[in-house]
Amino acid sequence: MTPGRCYGVGVGPGDPELLTVKAVRLLEACPVVAYFCAAGRESNARRVVRHHLRAEHTEMKLVYPLTTEAVGPSTYETLLADFYDQSAKRVAEVLDEGIDVAVLCEGDPFFFGSYMYLHHRLSDRYPSEVVPGVSSALAGAAVLGSPLASRNERFTVLSGVLPAHELEAGIAAADSIVVMKVGRNLDKVRDAVQRAGVLDRAYYLEWATLPNQQVMPLAEADGANAPYFSMVVIPSAGAIRR
To answer: Which of 16, 40, 171, 204 could cysteine-pair with 196, CB 3.0–4.6 Å?
Structure first.
């Protein structure tokens, strides 16, 4: 039997109108739609595409293990690797039946996307295709209406999980910066931005492109309530002036 094809489908930052035409076409054509979610919570990726799902779709929910806070970083990494192994196995079982699977991924599959871990485990055995999605980093700049970079400027993307000194060094070395995975790391990120001397042009964003989005100067953000889907955007000073 010819195996099914696995599609990693980027669904963008949250606004359903930012889905690509190709993403919608493949989603509607695939019999099985898989998506990641936290236990007891709706999948954000599914929420974006829910109006394109039909009764004849078979949905495959891939539920993340316990959080880092519950089990500790080292144990969580082991649990996460096992989770991706098991998720890839579930998808492979469907592909082996000759059925195509669309695996939804928030933002872009290869830019902080969970799908990349399935792609690594499946793409050498099954025909696979990745559909790019609009990254929240670019959506954040669009929401602000501020350029990220122009000409020969250096644009850097950092993870808020990095140690404070690495964040500070990365911020200081770039012309424009987006810090992803802010959440509970907000206070640390803000301190690094301040030490790097660019707090005056740094902005904090939650749920960019969605109706409940929040945008404010980073100096005013509340570190106690920052959700996982938050970021810090520091636009290029040069691009703004031109």
So the answer is: 171
